[in-house]
Amino acid sequence: MAIKYNHLPKGLKWTNPIHFLAIGFGSGASPLMPGTMGTLVAIPIYLLMQLCSVPVYTLILAAMICIGFWICDVADKAAGVHDHSSIVWDEIVGYLLTMWAIPMSWISVILGFLLFRLFDIWKPWPISWVNEKVGGGVGVVVDDLLAGVFAWVVIAFISYRYL
C-alpha cells in the first residue's frame, strides 16, 4: 500500500517545476513535520556546497535566496494560503545560511539542524514580527533567514570555541 500525500493544497501541483522546488523536491508534502523534512533535504545540499570555497558557497546561497523569493511567491499564491507548511524552500535556504562558513563535522551538521529548527519553530522577535507582517515570497523566506542567522550565531560561537 502506497503512502498517500494529502498535505498539498489543491493549487500546488507536483508537475509544476516551480511548485516542486517550493515544496522541497516533495519533502514539504509530508503529512508529518514538513518543515523538518524540508530541512533534512537541505543536509545533502549543504554537504555538496561545503566542498566549495566560502565565496562560492556565498554566491550559490545568495542565488538560492533570490530565486527562493520568486519560487515561494509563486507557490504562496498558488496555495492560496500565506506560508503554507508544504512550502519548504525557505527551510532549505535557512539551513544553508545556518551552516555558512561553519567547519564541516557531523556534530556541526546535527547541531545546525537542531538550532535552525529551534529558532524556526520558536520564532523569537523579530522572526515572529516578520512572519506576521511581511507577505508574499519575501515574507515566506525572510523569517527562515532570520532563524538561520540566530542559529548561525549560536553554532558559530560553539564551533569556533569548542569544536
What does this structure look like?
The protein has one domain (27-162). The protein has helices at residues 17-22, 34-49, 54-79, 89-98, 106-122, 127-133, 136-162. It starts with 16 loop residues before the first helix and ends with a helix. The chain has 7 helices and no strands.
Q: Report the uncertain regions.
A: none
What is the beta-strand fraction? under 5%
Major β-sheet, in short? none
Assembly status: single chain
Please give the domain count: 1
Q: What's the overall geometry?
A: globular
Q: How far do the termini sit from each other?
A: 45 Å
Rg, Cα atoms, Å: 15 Å
Count of β-strands: 0
- Overall pLDDT level: 94
DSSP helix fraction? 55-70%
Structural class: mainly alpha
> What is the number of helical segments per DSSP (H or I, 4+ residues)?
7
